[in-house]
Amino acid sequence: MASSKLKALWNHPAGPKTVFFWAPTAKWGISMANIADFSKPPESLSCPQQVAVLCTGIIWSRYSMAVTPKNWNLFGNSIAMAGTGLYQLTRKIKFEYDHFSETKAADEGKE
After folding, report:
1. C-alpha distances in angstroms, 51 versus 41, 47, 54, 90, 101?
2. Could you tell me the pLDDT band of residue 102, with boundaries at 50, 70 and 90?
3. C-alpha distances in angstroms, 28 versus 16, 66, 81?
4. For the chain, how big is the Rg over CA atoms in Å?
5. pTM of the shown model
6. What is the average pLDDT across 52-79?
7. What does the pLDDT look like over 4-52, one tens digit per residue?
């Protein structure tokens, strides 16, 4: 049973014998790096970078379901990229908003 599933995976058109397997597998490194950055302070995050990660995740998740054969490895990775990009972008925007509000309140207090 297990060997037949492994054989099916091995011979799949998007299996380990193709670039359609290894490219998304390597791309998981971007998602892992973004997850590792969750512990970074939000002021050190880059908005353009996180927008790019988010958009890339959205675009490639759609593409992975539009091609034949469906590439579930690419789909999973792209959803992870979109999710981590959205989370990091939300952290950055919240930090910038809070920082702006504090600065504005301090400026109004001086007057």
Report:
1. 18, 6, 5, 10, 23
2. confident
3. 15, 20, 8
4. 20
5. 0.80
6. 93
7. 888 888 888 888 888 888 888 999 999 999 999 999 999 999 999 999 9
Single-letter amino acid code for the residue at 42? P
Dig out the tokens for 2 from the structure. Answer: 């297990």
- Residue 70 CA to residue 108 CA, distance in Å, equals 56
CA distance 46 to 106: 26
Three-state DSSP at 17 gives coil
Return the domain boundaries, the chain. 45-111
DSSP secondary structure code for residue 39 in this structure: G
